[in-house]
Amino acid sequence: MATYIIGDLQGCFDPLQALLAQINYHPAKDQLWFVGDIVNRGPQSLECLRFVKSLGTTGQMVLGNHDFHLIASALGVEKYRAKSDTLEPILNAPDADELINWLRQQPLLVKHPQYAAIMVHAGIPPQWSVEEALKYSKEVETILRGEQWQDFIKHHLFGSKTREWHPLISGWERLRYIVNAFARMRYCDPHGKLDFEQKGAPSSSFGRYQPWFTHPNRRNKDHQIFFGHWSTLGGLDGYQVHATDTGCLWGGLLTAYCLETQQRHTYQCPQAAQPKKSRSPA
Ligand SMILES: [Mn+2]
Questions:
Q1: 170 CA distance to ligand 1 middle (Å)
Q2: Average pLDDT, stretch 26-39?
Q3: Tens digit of each residue's pLDDT (9 = 90 or more) over 108-118
Q4: pLDDT for 217-234, tens place per residue?
């Protein structure tokens, strides 16, 4: 039995199948974990979404910013739409409602039942312990699974003005920070104030805003954290974190990290999209 953590798919279904063949994936024995952004920009988002859903108890995923964008698009939210979106086949599929209903009930954080290992899409702010992060992720998951999910997605998602955390912030603003942190963060200050401007690879000289995982007093260093979202990190292993988005969509690699052997398996992907600016909430 093996647990494979698989980087951002973004609709790259054929590379996923090729990678699974390469690692001799055994559906009856192995677990597949997906770090989110399973859809958008690539050519086969519908196939990716149906596949991850079909895994049932042998699969896990966490929600990434593009997955949230898909849920919002299904509710008719236009403001994040971009020319590079490839979500139409999902929105027009006969099983669209079923897929979206399943997707919105997926978690923001997954914790391994035995190992000190955690998966999130973008990261965990340095000021949160693992126990706190679990509690905060559940606050959002409860809303997404409850009656207010449409209100939350339509009106309260992704405001880039919500950048700062305090344990006493409440209401929609609190939930917005939690989603911004788990699904969008790259750089932040030691107290978790988010910086949405910087997207590139870290330079050698860090200022106040650093990659979320390099802050020396980070309170969640007692677990290995697996994440995607940040392709320019190039598959970093260090700081007790493992970056798994290795740029499949852009003609880079698709990564499957085996938890048991701590080995990276990769598949060289054909380029499926051109990097360009878009209005999608990155
Ligand atoms: Mn992402």
A1: 25
A2: 97
A3: 999 999 999 99
A4: 999 999 999 999 999 999
Rounded Cα gap, residues 78 and 69, in angstroms: 10
Tokens of 42: 């690539």
* Token pair listed for 68: 């949230």
Residues 38-63 have pLDDT tens digits of 999 999 999 999 999 999 999 999 99
User: Do residues 246 and 226 touch, judged by C-beta distance below 8 A?
Assistant: no
Strands (E), 87-186: 109-111, 117-120
Closest CA to 41 of 85, 93, 90, 7: 85
C-alpha 160 to ligand 1 mean position (Å): 15
| Range 3-268: architecture per CATH | 4-Layer Sandwich (3.60)
Confirm if 8 and 64 have CB atoms less than 8 A apart.
yes
For residue 242, give Cα distances in angstroms to 29, 88, 118, 173: 24, 32, 10, 29
What are the structure tokens assigned to 207, written together?
């200022």
Q: How far is the CA of 42 from the centre of ligand 1 (A)?
A: 13
- Cα gap 183→271, rounded to integer Å: 24
Q: Which residue has tokens 């997707």?
A: 103
The pTM assigned to this predicted structure is 0.95
